[in-house]
Structures are given as C-alpha cells and as structure tokens.
Amino acid sequence: MARSPFILCIGAALCGAVVAHPAPEPRITPTPTAPAKRDLLDIPASVTSLLGSAIPSDAAGGILPAWLTMPSDDQIKKQLGLNDTSISQLPVEVMNIPGYANWTENGWNNRIHGYVYKNPPATADQLDSAAQIFVPSLDESGFTDANRAMARNVTAALITLPVQNYSLQFTLRYNAQPAANITFPLPTDDRGEYDQFVPFTSQGLIPNGNETNVVQGLELFTPAIASGNSSSYLVPPQGVTLVADIDDILRVTRIYQPADGLKNSFAMPYVPWMNMPQVLKGWEQRIQGLHFHYLTTTPIKVTQFYESFTYANYPLGSYDIRPLNLTTVEQIFQVRKVNLHRIFETFPQRKFVLLGDTSNGDIMSQYPAMATDFPGQVQCILLRNTSATDSGDHFPYDTSGFKNLDNSTYMFFRTPDDIAGLDFSKGECRNASVPQNVTFEYQGLPNILGNAAMSTQLSIPVLSLLVFSTLITLFA
Q1: Rounded to two decimals, what is the model's pTM?
Q2: What is residue 467's predicted lDDT score, i.e. its pLDDT?
Q3: pLDDT higher than 90, residue 104
Q4: How many helices (H) does the chain have, and how many strands (E)?
Q5: Residue 196, strand partner residues
Q6: Which CATH code for domain 237-455?
Q7: Distance of CA 452 to the CA centre of its chain
Q8: 386 secondary structure, DSSP code
Q9: Hey, where are the domains in the chain?
Q10: Which residues make Cβ contacts (< 8 Å) with residue 365, sequence separation at least 6?
Q11: What value does the mean pLDDT of the chain take?
Q12: Which residues, including other chains, have CB under 8 Å from residue 162's CB and lie 6 or more apart?
C-alpha cells in the first residue's frame, strides 16, 4: 500500500522536533533533543487513563487522547501537494452545530456556531495511510471494507482545511414557514469557526418563550450550501435541561482503553450503550418540556459522526463540542467547563440534570463544581460507574468533589435500568434500590498500579509526580 507522510505528534511540544522524510517510506526521526515517537499500542492504557485524571484536562473525554494531536494545515497542504490556487478552487462547506436559543425581552437570542471548511482531495491510499495513525491494525483481517471506509471518512474530516474571514448568511424556518433571515455579525476566525448569539424576531410566527414551556425546533439553512443545513432549539426560561456526555454513557467507546477507543471511533459502527436510548426516550415522553443538550469534547471536525449517531438513537437536542480556536488556558484544558458555564448562564432559571460517567476526569471535577458555582440550578448529577460494568476500565476517578453536596442530588449507577424510572419534573434523583457507598477520595488506583495494598488516597501532586515519572520512562 502506498503510504502518505501524515504526521501526528505525541505532545504538542514535541511536534516541532520531529522531521518527516519524503514518500514512499516516511519515518519520524528524532532530533538530539527530542525522544522517539512510540507507537500508539506501545503506551499502556493505564498510563493514558492516569494522565486524564491527574492532569486538569478533558482531552481524555474525546476521541483523541491528550498526547495525540492533529496535523497542521500547512502539513496537510504540503503532504497533499496543494497550493493556494488549487485550494481556492475547492467548494466551501459549512458545518452548523445544532444550537440553542434563549428568550429575552427583545425576542429570541439564538446561538449559532459551526465551522467553514474545504475538503482537500485525497486518494484512498493516502487516507488509509493517515488512518493507520489512529488504528494501526487497520490492515488486519479483523476489519471489513466497511470499517476501512469509515476510517477514511473520519480521517478525511480531520484533514479538512478551515476557511478564514468568511461571511455567513442564514435562513430560519419554523414549521416549514420562513421565520427570519440572519446576517452573521462576524466573519469566521482563523480556524474557520464562528460562535455568537444572534437575536431575531419572527413577527408572531413563533410563540414567545415566556408563553410556553415546550422546547421548539427551528430549521437552519445556509443559502446555496447544502452541507450547512441544521437545527436550533428554542428553550423557554424555565424547565429542566438534561446535559449528557456521549462517550461511554450514550455510546460504547471505551475511551479508558485508548486502542479500543480509537478503533471504536474511527473504524467500528457507533453502538449505543445498553438500553440508554430507551431511557432517554422514556424521559422525553414523561417529562414535558425536557431540553436535551449533548456536550462532548470531541473536536468539531468530527462532530457530524457524533450527531448522526445521536439523532439516530436519542431525542433531538442542541450540541456543544470542542472548538479548534482555543485561545486561553481554561479553554484548552477545561473546554467542558467553558461550555457548561455558558449554558448555565444562558438559562439561569432552568434546572439542570448532568449525565456522564466516572472514567472522565473532567466530568468528575466539573459536574459537582457546577452545583457550587450555580447554587440551586443543578437538580441532579447521574454518573455511570464505568468500572462496575467494564473490567477493562482501570481509570482512577476522584469523588472528593461530591463531599459537600447534598447526597440526594447525585447518584452513581451501574446500568441504564437504575435510572430509567426517575422523574426530574418531580425533583427525583435517586433510585433507593441502588447502593451508593461513596467515599470521597480517589478510586481505582490499586488496579492501575498493581498493588492492592496501596492506599487510594493520593493527592494531585502525588499523581502528577507519578505521571511525570511515567512519561520520562516512556519517552526517554
């Protein structure tokens, strides 16, 4: 198979210290000051799990581990032989992320966000070669042609090129009727992204937010660009919003086993976790006005695959993702926190139910923090105890953030049936038949370190030292 020299780096700081040799046999050669790159499967799953919990980053919550970064735009152009002229001739595509709108005294205020890009031409062999970075065993007999086709599609999405300084127009439709035309107030940024709240009025076509308790849907169109079709959700000021993570709570990903996580995200069909679709659909039917909001830290470039899976299996709802243009330390390392704060601040009178799993380090710290940062708004935190149902999860998780919370406002569960009967409209958050036994400390470290006698009460500094020592061993 012909190979293409796409490069993904272990650790952003190392990207400038590796050199790609020309085709047909590209290699990554270390300079005297940089360590050699290890193959993905050479890095123990326990180490990457430990990284996700000990370092204040939610990178482990998306399909790309923290130590695996995407090729730069310049690398993509160079390795595909593209120049400015050839790129200018490619059609513009728009990916609108389903947003939410809040009601104000001046009308609806609609959050419109997404990504404008171009698809660079790449051969199947080039995409196969690039996909090998994520799924090194893709050539093996265990993968079908359909698996390889999916890997090409996901990889093609990752190598799209952003369109900067692009002006956008949108058309809104409500019940198949024209509702508003919107000129987006700013052009796209240098990563091709846009994200703003844009006010609009519909002259009586759409019910006012203070006159209904039902979430209403809008169709969002980008004129002359079919890929830009999407939805927005008009959310009334009061009611309940369910904020749900996706990986390992709505779908089987196994992020805590990096090789499996990448395989399940790049090559295998997306599969719901047990009967979670029935649980969420049951809530939708029983709880009037429930707003579903899906919050994932997956990069925006591959959001379309998550959306397709979610809407094929779960109730419709708005979306938050990991943008490309991260400009502050908080945005880089705590993008989930940024997105959570935005939606809480947008709907100060709504109650929130937060759904996730224990293998996600940022969820374990940020979900309980929301109850402190926004008193009275967090009605319930529901967390799948991943290690209780998957013996492959050796991810340490810290429950200390729950110590000062009312224990009636959170629940750790094992299977979807444990939470299926909850009625949030009645303030319910606990299934009394499910034992909790929560101790407010780190859990699971003995499984990682292979020492059953070792105390689980390790502080962040101790964990950081362990991580640092492990990295030296791996990359020296």
Answers
A1: 0.82
A2: 39
A3: yes
A4: 14, 19
A5: 112
A6: 3.40.50.1000
A7: 33
A8: H
A9: 237-455
A10: 56, 398, 401
A11: 81
A12: 73, 115, 116, 117, 188, 190, 191, 192, 193, 324
